[in-house]
Structures are given as structure tokens and as C-alpha cells.
Automatic annotation (TrEMBL):
This is GTPase, G3E family. Residues 238-263 have a biased composition (Basic and acidic residues). Belongs to the SIMIBI class G3E GTPase family. ZNG1 subfamily. The keyword Phosphoprotein does not apply. It comes from Halogeometricum rufum.
């Protein structure tokens, strides 16, 4: 391993805004481990961790998921338990942790640095931040040199984004295919102001080699300690040390202890059903799209394609919906869609989606799937 005689397992922490391309990066690394045996821990804030299901190596038991919360807040203790259990149970060369899109990197890193039972086994090696260059380009407000954020949830998310950029060793400027070159130069200039030290790569579908993010030896705790973000984080911890919120991290991070299903002003819910969607009604609903939903992802059943796993993936302004595989005999076919946003009207969205399902009449056995026209793409 890179760090001299240190035989602890190197850890790569992948952060990045919602939909920036973290799962894409994790899948890329798992598909080409370049001789490394990699274990993956995936955190998602929805009650169903569709990210874990979307990560390639799941079938081999490579992937551990931490669900329904954000590892920087309510799942911090679980993170420590899980990584210790992993190290006791399995042999692997590197641990890759995919944080949820709303996780602050500092508290997650702190678990690896300061919890003895964790730091005995692991060494924080590389902090990777995946930045959605397209979203950044669209949202950035050059007047304030901060991402545009007019509401409270937006401000919190904007701070998380700045933290993710400031606190990294490797920065992937991802989704470059969606941004013109001159605008990319502007984005890179701004990012460089926030983050002069990190290795920066312009990527499309996170196309870097595993060596770029695994066992690099790039993490530099002294540089981190000097950073404004780390100091602010410590100051916040101090402010809340005798806090009125009794969160399980012992006062740390108390302002981010959340009401059920809400983190950093962002809420989520999962829509689940075994009744298939009517293709035209669901397609029209995707075109309309409810306000307040920033991120949506998961699988759905379509009346016309009972054998097919249909995927929905929406990140900011871009959406894809189409076939991603076939249901296997051991699967439990169902629609599982996670919605994430700052002002979600969950009841209204559930009602709209219910209205897109086949009615009892449409679902009768006599109904022939071929009777529906299907505007979704094939393969
Ligand atoms: N055009 C384009 N799309 C991309 C690129 N990278 C990822 N995507 C797509 O963006 C969507 C979100 O990618 P993910 O890898 O799931 O993003 P994520 O950061 O894991 O998302 P969360 O875990 O929900 O925060 C998917 O539909 C990807 O296929 C890219 O470079 N260009």
C-alpha cells in the first residue's frame, strides 16, 4: 500500500451533489478494479437504497448499504459499526465509501480519523468530490461567487456543495459532455478559487482509471486542518457542545439533526407499488414533472413490458427513462422510485402517480398489453 509501512486499509470517500455521478464512478471502479479487491459502502437518504441496487458488484456481496439517513448525521455510528464489521468479516485492499448527495464530508472523514476502532483498521487515503459541471454552470451566481440559493434548504445545500469542493484531494468535473468548452473554463476557474490544491479531472460519465481514486496517498490531514471549512466545522461543534439538541453524535452537528425523512432542508420519500404504470399516462407525467423534485431515481413496472426492469433517473434538468435489464426469477418485481427535493409535496405526487397506474378495469386479465401504445425507448 502507498503509505509506507502502514498496513491499514486505504479509504476513498466519494462525495458530490445529488446526481453528480457518484454511483457512475463507483460502478466504473468496480468494473475495472485494476488488481484491487474493493469493498463498497453506499449511503443513500431514501428509505430504499436504490443506489446499492444500481451498484454493479452487489451480486458478489461487495456492497454494503446504509439507508434512510445521511451518514454525516444520524448514521454516523452505523458507519463506524459497519466498516469495523466489514474489516472483521472480509479481506479487501481498498474501501470505497459513497456518501449520499447531501452528506457533508467533514463528519464522515472524522469518523475515519478520530474513532479509534475505525482508525486502527483504516487510513483515510483519498477524498474524491464529483461535481456536476452542468448543474454548477446553470446554477452558479457569479455576483456572489456562491451557488444560487434563494431558499433555506437551497442555502444549506449550497454550503454542502462548497464544503465538498473545498474538502477534497481529487475533483472530478463531471458531465463535461453537457457543457460548452468555454463555459467549462469558467467553471474550472471558479472551482479552482475554492479548491487550489486538488487534482482536477474533466470527466464524462466519471471516466477515470481506478488508480486516480484508489490508494493514491493524497489525503493530507495538515492541509485539511488549515482549511476554512474544517475550522468552521470545529467551531460549529464547539457552539453546539452543550447543545439543546440531544443528537447521538454527542452535540456535534446538532443543527443538522432532522425531523423524520429530512436532512439539510432536503426531504425524500419512496413510492412503491406492484401495479404497473399505464405507459402514456406515466410518460406524460414525466414530461410535466412536479416542481420541488430535484432528484428521482429507481425502477418501475410498465404495463407493456412485464419482463423488463425500467429505470428512471432524473438529476436536475436531465431525465432518462428506459429499459435497464430483465427481472430475474429471484427478483420481486415492483416499482420503487425515490424522490428527493427541497419542497416536496409528497401527497400530491403520490396522488398523481396513483393516477398513472393501470385502473382495475385496465388491469383485468383480458386486457392485452399490446392494446396500449408505449412511447418509452426500447433498449
Ligand atoms: N450526460 C451525462 N450524464 C451523466 C454523466 N455522469 C452521470 N450521468 C447520469 O446522471 C445521472 C445520475 O448519475 P449517478 O451516478 O446516479 O449520480 P449520483 O451522484 O450517484 O446520484 P445520487 O446518489 O442520487 O446523489 C444518471 O442518469 C447518470 O447516467 C455524464 O458525465 N454526462
Amino acid at each position: 500500500m502507498t503509505a509506507g509501512s502502514d498496513d491499514r486499509t486505504p479509504v476513498t470517500l466519494v462525495s458530490g451533489t445529488l446526481g453528480a455521478g457518484k454511483t457512475t464512478l463507483v460502478n466504473r471502479v468496480l468494473r475495472n478494479e485494476a488488481g484491487y479487491e474493493v469493498a463498497v459502502l453506499v449511503n443513500d437518504m431514501g428509505e430504499v437504497n436504490v443506489d446499492a441496487q444500481l451498484v454493479a458488484g452487489d451480486a458478489d456481496g461487495d456492497v454494503v448499504d446504509l439507508t434512510n439517513g445521511c451518514i454525516c448525521c444520524r448514521l454516523n455510528d452505523d458507519l463506524a459499526d459497519e466498516v469495523v464489521r466489514l474489516a472483521d468479516d472480509r479481506e479487501f485492499d481498498c474501501l470505497l465509501v459513497e456518501a449520499s448527495g447531501i452528506s457533508e464530508p467533514y463528519p464522515v472523514a472524522k469518523t475515519f480519523l478520530e474513532e479509534d476502532r475505525v482508525s486502527d483498521r483504516y487510513r483515510l487515503d483519498t477524498l474524491v468530490s464529483v461535481l456536476d459541471a452542468y448543474g454548477f454552470w446553470k446554477e452558479f451566481d457569479p455576483e456572489t461567487n456562491r451557488p444560487d440559493a434563494s431558499d433555506a434548504g437551497g442555502r444549506e445545500l449550497a454550503q454542502v456543495l462548497v464544503d465538498q469542493v473545498e474538502f477534497c484531494d481529487v475533483l472530478l468535473l463531471n458531465k463535461c459532455d453537457l457543457v460548452p468548452d468555454d463555459a467549462l473554463d469558467d467553471v474550472e476557474d471558479v472551482v479552482r478559487e475554492l479548491q487550489p490544491r486538488a487534482e482536477l479531472h474533466r470527466t464524462t460519465h466519471a471516466d477515470v482509471s481506478p488508480e486516480t481514486v484508489l490508494d493514491t496517498g493524497l489525503f493530507d490531514f495538515d492541509a485539511v486542518r488549515r482549511s476554512a471549512g474544517w475550522k468552521r466545522h470545529l467551531a460549529e461543534r464547539h457552539d453546539h457542545a452543550d447543545g439543546d439538541h440531544d443528537d447521538h453524535t454527542g452535540g456535534d452537528h446538532a443543527d443538522h439533526d432532522h425531523a423524520d425523512g429530512e436532512s439539510h432542508g432536503v426531504s425524500s420519500f419512496c413510492y412503491e407499488t406492484t401495479r404497473p404504470f399505464h405507459p402514456e399516462r406515466f410518460d406524460a407525467w414525466i414530461d410535466e414533472w412536479p416542481s420541488g423534485v430535484y432528484r428521482a431515481k429507481g425502477f418501475f413496472l410498465l404495463a407493456t413490458r412485464p419482463e423488463t426492469v425500467m429505470g428512471l433517473n432524473r438529476a436536475g434538468p436531465s431525465v432518462t427513462a428506459g429499459p435497464i435489464g430483465e427481472w430475474r426469477a429471484e427478483d420481486d418485481p415492483a416499482t420503487r422510485l425515490v424522490f428527493i427535493g427541497t419542497e416536496l409535496d409528497e401527497a400530491a405526487i403520490r396522488e398523481q402517480l396513483d393516477g398513472c397506474l393501470l385502473t382495475d378495469e385496465e388491469a383485468t386479465e383480458e386486457t392485452d398489453a399490446a392494446a396500449f401504445s408505449d412511447p418509452f425507448p426500447t433498449a
